[in-house]
Amino acid sequence: MYLTRLTLLAHPDTGAIVRQLGDAYREHQMLWQLFDPDPDAGRDFLYRRDVHRGRPRYFLLSWRPPVNPLGLWRIDPPKPLAPRLRPGQRLAFSLRANPVVRRGQERHDVVMECKRRMNWKALPASERPPLMTLAHDAGLEWLQRQGERHGFRFDPKAVRVDGYRQHHCRQGSRTIHFSTLDFTGLLTVTEPDTFVQALYNGIGPAKAFGCGLMLVRRV
Questions:
Q1: Distance of alpha carbon 189 from alpha carbon 76, whole angstroms
Q2: pLDDT of the residue at 67
């Protein structure tokens, strides 16, 4: 695996490119162009977007190193990623995720599901908890379940939850809806092999739209 940081370069068409990158589906398509075409390859990368000096910057985790055929990006040298971890090891982490729960055959945003369960719309405004309180509590419950599946645990007091957003993008004639939460903090590895696979494969759904890549560092 390779972990690569890339930043959009200043260019006469930068404004138009940034607008395209504002759509999650087009963003995914543009990032896919950074890899040599392979008709037999599915999506074999995860990514995370942030903003650096007003321009989009990305972290890519991929099985193949990215290329730059159009010269639109500054690509830092890819770093091979093969972590060797031990049980009980503490790591700082950052994760942008699409936290959902299943109801029947469908997935539902954990925050909206929490609002549904408390009959949010019927509550007087004075009795409604702040949205970020709901997002914080529902997000931590979701992350705890992920930890049980993926070989880590954490102290809820050592994790920050913020950045709740709802996203909409077009894929042909279909509109895609998903939400994101950002998690940052400290975790403890409980099952190293399982945890490394989660780093490689991503955590939660919507990986094609910039979710699921957990960035970690030793502390």
A1: 29
A2: 86
Q: How far apart are CA 38 and CA 171, in angstroms?
A: 22
Question: What one-letter code names the amino acid at 98?
Answer: N
* Residue 198, both tokens: 């989660």
Q: What is the DSSP letter of 166?
A: E
Question: How buried is residue 177: exposed, middle or buried, by Cβ count under 10 Å (0-12/13-18/19+)?
Answer: exposed
> pTM higher than 0.85 for the full model?
yes
162's tokens: 């913020």
**Which structural domains are found in the chain, ordered by start?**
2-80 (3.30.70.1200), 90-218 (3.30.70.1210)
| Residue located via tokens 């099952």 | 191
What is the average per-residue pLDDT within 3-21? 69
Residue in the structure block whose two tokens are 């007087």: 124
CA distances from 11 to 18, 31, 118 (A): 11, 17, 49
